[in-house]
């Protein structure tokens, strides 16, 4: 069985944690290599001290994602990568191609880099050279939601797979009752009488 390399993008967002949970329960299998990838923005001032702080915060965030993994899986290889890069997705694309990932899992939110990639490239999957799964949490429709979404025209090719996690509740299914007769059918009882042996004198 070939070892699959699965990359999960680490972000400080609930949907990113939900994407990791979905990956652990629906995608990951024994022997796979799971990579937690976090890309932090470069500092505008170019301060090395601030860059070190952002890198440290990135590692702490990745470690919190690793804790989610540790509570679910034990027999899979895992690695963390924290690096500096842009928020347009170019650094993530470069890292995913360098890793040789077979699947990229992303928590899809309003400011996701996937939207920016979709507008900049005709085919995201070909650009990343792997399958792309975007995990999306359902939201209640509000007036502000439409304003926050990026403007995408009909020519934009949204070629990544969107998987929406719904708050489905499994109904309580009563345990099937097994018919049990307290008193069996009297006609089904066969009485055997033991014949007494005659004593020979």
What is the chain-wise order of helices and strands?
EHEHEHEHHEHE
Number of strands: 6
- Main sheet: strand order: 3-2-1-4-5-6
Largest sheet: 6 strands, parallel
> How much helix is in the residues?
25-40%
Alpha-carbon distance between the two ends: 84 Å
- Please tally the helical runs, counting DSSP H or I stretches of 4 or more residues: 6
CA radius of gyration: 29 Å
Low-confidence segments: 142-159, 166-173
Proportion in β-strands = 15-25%
Estimated structural class: alpha/beta
Q: Name the shape in a single word.
A: globular
Short description:
By secondary structure, this protein is an alpha/beta fold. It has 6 helices and 6 strands.
Any overview of this molecule?
The protein is an alpha/beta fold and 201 residues long. It is built from six helices and six strands, in the order βαβαβαβααβαβ. It has helices at residues 14-26, 48-70, 90-99, 113-120, 124-128, 143-148, and strands spanning 5-9, 33-40, 77-84, 103-107, 131-136, 161-164. Strands 3-2-1-4-5-6 form a six-stranded parallel β-sheet, with helices on both faces. The chain is globular. Mean pLDDT is 76; it is low at 142-159 and 166-173.
